């Protein structure tokens, strides 16, 4: 069977992403037609996002700096595209949650619980996936040209020369939670732009979460 070279390339470079996308699409197609189009899309997104999140964190927990360097070189061409796609997917999921919560008010109490569970799972996985994707991108920026860059893209306390994924996760999740960079200094203009982008997206995300939480709380009390 003929397989386009571009697909072969991405399978070699991004097997976890392609497996996750395939699982999400398959889930969407197999869901019963009784569900609305939006619900099928949200469930498919949940399968894709949770699976990809598990793949990424398994990779992050076992990778050494040498392994991270190899991944950065292998995935150099597609790094920015994947970050953009994940960011767009997470933001679109927020819009879908708003629509889903709107329909939840018009259903029975038993179905309302299912609606709220689906929106809650979508919200949690989207929030977790976004800083995780930025974690991978910060690691890519740090290691793609070697750790001898001057200045270093990120400067960790103690002048850590070979940070692991968990070090980058510390930086990324601090921005996601507190909208600040803590004790890690940004040393390169390109990384400064990425940090600004994550800060803006995280602020919007957190404000939407606050608004949705108030909405859901009011709906449960009514």
SSE layout and pairing:
Layout (H helix, E strand, L loop, with lengths): L4 H9 L1 H16 L6 H26 L2 H10 L4 H26 L4 H35 L10 E2 L9 H14 L6 E2 L2 H33 L1
Antiparallel strand pairs: 1-2
Instruction: Report the order of strands and helices.
Output: HHHHHHEHEH
Q: Give the strand tally.
A: 2
Beta strand %: under 5%
Order of the strands making up the biggest sheet: 1-2
Distance between the termini: 58 Å
Mean pLDDT: 83
Q: What proportion of the residues is helical, as a percent range?
A: over 70%
Task: Give the C-alpha Rg.
Answer: 19 Å
In DSSP terms (H or I, runs of 4 or more residues), the helix count works out at 8
Biggest sheet details: 2 strands, antiparallel
How many structural domains? 1
Going by helix content, strand content and strand pairing, the class is: mainly alpha
Gross morphology: globular
Poorly predicted regions: 1-5
Keywords: Membrane, Transmembrane, Transmembrane helix
Pfam families: DUF1345
InterPro entries: DUF1345 (IPR009781)
Protein name: DUF1345 domain-containing protein
Q: Could you walk me through the main structural features you see in this protein, from its secondary elements to its overall organization?
A:
The chain crosses the membrane at residues 17-35, 41-61, 82-102, 114-135, 200-221. Keywords: Membrane, Transmembrane, Transmembrane helix. This is DUF1345 domain-containing protein. Pfam families: DUF1345. The protein is mainly α and 222 residues long. The chain has one domain (64-221). The protein has 8 helices and 2 strands. The chain has helices at 5-13, 15-30, 37-62, 65-74, 79-104, 109-143, 165-178, 189-221, and strands at 154-155, 185-186. Residues 1-5 have low confidence and may be disordered.
């Amino acid at each position: 069977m003929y397989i386009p070279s571009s697909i072969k390339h991405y399978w070699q470079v991004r097997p976890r992403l392609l497996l996750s996308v395939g699982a999400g699409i398959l889930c969407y197609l197999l869901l019963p037609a009784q569900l609305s189009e939006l619900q099928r899309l949200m469930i498919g997104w949940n399968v894709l996002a949770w699976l990809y999140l598990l793949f990424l964190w398994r990779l992050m927990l076992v990778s050494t700096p040498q392994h991270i360097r190899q991944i950065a070189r292998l995935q150099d061409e597609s790094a920015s595209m994947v970050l953009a796609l994940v960011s767009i997917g997470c933001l679109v999921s927020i819009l879908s949650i708003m629509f889903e919560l709107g329909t939840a008010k018009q259903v029975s109490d038993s179905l309302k619980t299912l609606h709220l569970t689906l929106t809650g799972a979508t919200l949690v996985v989207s929030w977790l996936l976004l800083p995780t994707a930025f974690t991978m991108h910060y690691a890519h920026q740090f290691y793609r040209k070697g750790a001898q860059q001057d200045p270093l893209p990120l400067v960790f306390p103690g002048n850590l020369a070979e940070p692991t994924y968990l070090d980058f996760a510390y930086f990324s999740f601090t921005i996601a939670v507190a909208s600040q960079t803590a004790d890690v200094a940004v040393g390169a203009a390109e990384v400064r732009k990425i940090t600004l982008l994550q800060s803006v997206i995280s602020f919007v995300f957190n404000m939407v979460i606050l608004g949705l939480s108030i909405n859901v709380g009011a709906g449960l009390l009514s």
